[in-house]
Amino acid sequence: MADMSDWDADELTRWLAAERDDACDQADALFARVASSHWRPLEAPAGLEARIMAAVPTRRPAFDLAAPWWVRLTVASALLVLGLAPAAISPGLLLDLASNFVTVLARLTHGVVTSGSAVLGVFGVSWTLLTAVGRAAVVVTTTGAAPMLIVANLLVASAAFFGLTRLLAPREECS
Amino acid sequence: MTDAELVERTLAGFEDGFRTLVARHQSSVYNLLVRMLRNPALAEDLAQDTFLKAFSHLRSFDPRFKFSNWILRIAHNAAIDTIRRRGPRESSIDEPEPGEQRRIDEALVDPRSDDASKRMEQRDLARVLDVALERLRPEYRQAVVLRYQEDLSYEEIAEITGVPLGTVKSNLHRARSEMAEFLKRHGFK
Fold first, then answer.
1. Domain boundary residue among B86, B109, B125?
2. Confidence (pTM)
3. Which of A129, B89, B109, B142 is the residue whose CA sits 20 to 30 A from B26?
4. How many folded domains does chain B comprise?
5. How large is the average pLDDT for residues A1-11?
6. Residue A45 to residue B30, Cβ atoms within 8 A
């Protein structure tokens, strides 16, 4: 509730008079003053924030510097092990791993290319079918009285749309 | 921290960022929903849904715009969906709902009486404005709340409600006229 010093009965009277006289800008400003003096927004109920936060799905941070010390220690240890591992592997083993990786990569590429060509084949068939349907549609719509009918329909639809838009548009009374 | 920074912090996985956003904007969202739906329990549920929806779509938030307008738009859409599902239950300004007349009578002390103190008038005016607002159509109510309680510009209201600027102005004009009429009928001159 506003402080007593905010209260000015004259503002209310002037607002009501402005509304009566259709003085839009003045009425807007005066009502804003009446509202700010007397009319407070409702506060959210106690516990709403907690309720919302309880329903929010937990999403862990990528790396929280404020995490407990044992979490940071575990992450650091894991990174250290990962960093030292390559140094402990012999050159022969590393060569084997690399050649295996290349083989797997080649197989994967072959699979992707095969699947792609199959998809393109299906697409080609669909394209032929679609063009045939399109040609048939063009023939039907350009033969005899069909074009006239289509144009007439479009004109009627446009007129109806324009009329409805005009009818349903809100009248601006106060701008 | 700005709202945009809090959004970034939330997206980085820090829950406290979103908690602060909720604390900052929950009253605006709740106020709009209560005023539109006239049902505090339902408004509370929808306020929760609004923030959950905002959380799950946070990546689509454009930081060039105001977060408050974005969240109010989500709340507005949720309220409109609910009103459509419920059907047009709102009453016109000439038809008080059952039991409403008693509330109006309780709210009103004849302001023409000599012994009505300023404090009484002030308190009563707030309550009568509440009743007058409740009797407006939902689209008028939301325009009034956004303009005179959330202090938003016509352009911002148009952005939140998704209606043309001219309609926002017309709605506000009609809403104020109906509220003024209501006040006059109840003795405020």
1. B86
2. 0.59
3. B89
4. 2
5. 54
6. yes
Chain B hits for A42, Cβ within 8 Å: 27, 30-31, 34-35
- Write the CATH number for B59: 1.10.1740.10
Please answer whether residues B18 and A55 qualify as being in contact, where contact means their C-beta atoms are separated by less than 8 angstroms. Answer: no
Residue B50 located in a structural domain:
yes
Interface membership of B52 toward A (CB under 8 Å):
yes
Please check whether residues B108 and B80 belong to one and the same domain: no
Tell me: pLDDT of A50 over 90.
yes
pLDDT at residue A6, rounded to an integer? 47
Q: How far apart are CA A107 and CA B130, in angstroms?
A: 72
E strands, chain B, are none
Note whether B169 and B154 are within 8 A (CB).
yes
Q: Are B110 and B181 in a shared domain?
A: yes
- Give the residue from chain A lying closest to B174, CA to CA: A173
| CA nearest to B148 within chain A | A32
DSSP state letters, B73-99: HHHHHHHHHHHHHH-S-PPPTTSPPTT
Residue B95 is assigned to a structural domain of this protein: no
**Measured between alpha carbons, how far is B177 from A17 in angstroms, rounded to an integer?**
11
Q: Do A49 and B126 touch (CB under 8 A)?
A: no
Q: Residue B138, Cβ neighbours under 10 Å: how many?
A: 18
Q: Which domain holds residue B78?
A: 3-86
> Could you tell me if B143 lies within 8 Å of chain A, comparing CB atoms?
no
Q: Report the residue of B8, B26, B29, B171 to disrupt the A interface, i.e. the one with the largest count of A CBs within 10 Å.
A: B26
Question: What tokens does B139 get?
Answer: 């689209």
Q: Which of B170, B174, B143, B162 is nearest to A170 (CA)?
A: B170
CA neighbor of A57 nearest in space, from B53, B68, B63: B53
Q: How far apart are CA A172 and CA A166, in angstroms?
A: 13
Here the ipTM equals 0.75
pLDDT digits (tens, 9 = 90+) for A101-140: 899 999 999 999 999 988 888 888 889 899 999 988 888 8
Q: What is the CATH number of the domain that holds B118?
A: 1.10.10.10
| B13–A38 CB contact, under 8 Å | no
